[in-house]
Automatic annotation (TrEMBL):
Domain of life: Bacteria
Signal peptide: 1-23
Identification of the protein by name: PEP motif anchor domain protein
Key words, A-Z: Signal
Origin species: Colwellia psychrerythraea
Lineage, top ranks: Bacteria, Pseudomonadati, Pseudomonadota, Gammaproteobacteria, Alteromonadales
Keyword Signal carried by entry: yes
Amino acid sequence: MNIKMLKSTITGLAFLISGVANSGVIYDFDLVYDGSTFSFENNVSWHNLNFNVGDSLDITLKADQGDHWQWLLGSNERYAWIRDSCNSNTGLSEWEFSNNSSIVGSGSQNTSQGCIHFGPNTLNLANGTLFDQYQFNYTYTSGPNTVLSTQDILNNSPWGWTFNDGVRFQYVDANINEISEPLPLTILALGIIALASRRYKTQSN
């Protein structure tokens, strides 16, 4: 990873949708990937938040401008794996992958499991698909309340190995190419300068 930190906008906001019965609270989180792990803006995270029936969690993960992820396997993979407190809950999840604002994959799923994984293990994209943004929404349809933890957002966690392990997903930093491409031209220029200098010395003698 080049010495450039991704500067995607990160927000951690929660707001109440009022006037609609059972609409619940919508929690909106944008996260940034620095090449090895994720972080929340101003350390605002979902740690210790309680979620009720009707509450929704919206997550957006972005790569820096020009950067992207590449999907290396074709089916049944996890992405954005965020575990709750392992109560028995159900909910509706929807997800979408996009690249340069064009949708390259999407889907939805009703889940019923002990530990709800926000980013199910049934994602299917064509091998080699590129994307620079992942959006995920999960709405609780049952209780009791659950509490999310940030303990999984570590480099050696599912967040780490799924986002840049070279097996399931590979992160591509555009700056690496931007720096390496001029190198042959630089070598050629140095060669021309050296040749011109040699000819000048020969003529001087």
